[in-house]
Amino acid sequence: MVIAIDGPAGSGKSTTAKNVAEKLGFIHINTGAMYRGIALKCIQEDVDMEDAAQLNHLLACTKFEFAAEGELALFMDGVDISSEITSVEVTDVVSQVSAISQVREKLVQYQRKMAEGLNVVLEGRDIGTVVFPNAHHKFFLVADIHERARRRKKEMEAKGEVVSLEELAEEMLERDRKDSTRKHSPLKKAEDAVEIDTTGISIEEQVNRIVEIVNKTIK
Ligand code: DC
Question: Can you tell me which atom of ligand 1 is nearest the CA of 99?
Fold first, then answer.
C-alpha cells in the first residue's frame, strides 16, 4: 500500500509521515531528502547544474538508502547525510536542483523502485500527482506561514542555528513559489487528495486523522 503525503515546506509532512509510518509499521521515504542529497553532492563536487553530462554522471553514480540508526537516516553512497542536507547552503539551492527534469526523472524512477511491493509512506511535493498517481491514500498538508516559520525556527534552534522568523518565512514563501511554478511536476494538490490544515493542531492529531482514514481501508 502507498500513502502519499504532499505539501509545502514546514507543513508538517516529515514528522507526520514518520509517525504515521511508525504507527502502521510502514516504511517511510522522505523524497525531499533525496533532492537535498543531490543538491549536496552538486555542491561537494562542484558540479555545474546546467551541464547535462556532468549532472547525468552524478545521477548515475548516486545510491540512496534509508536505514534506521536510532532515527531513520538517509545514506548517500554509504554515508549518512541526514544532518548535512538540512544546512542553509543545501536549502538555498535545492529548489533549483529539483526543477531540473533530468534530476526529477531519475529520482522518481528511484522512488518507485524503492517502494515496489512494500507498504510505504512517501512524502514530498509530487507523490500523489506524479510518483504514485494511483496511491491508495493521498494527503495534502497545509499550514499558515507564520506557524510554518515558527516550526522551522524551533528545528533550527535545536541544531544551534539562529535565524529570524521573518527571514524563515520569506525563504519558505520563495521556495514554495519556485516549487509550485516550476515546469516539471510542480507542487500541487492532487484532485483526490484529502487536505489537512495543520495550523493549530498537534502532531498527534494530524497523525491520528491519517491513521484513522487508512485503517478504515485496511480492516
Ligand atoms: O521537503 P523538503 O523541504 O526537504 O524538500 C526540499 C526540496 O525538494 C523542496 O524545496 C522541493 C523539492 N522536492 C521536490 O521537488 N519534490 C519532492 N517530491 C520532494 C521535494
Answer: 15
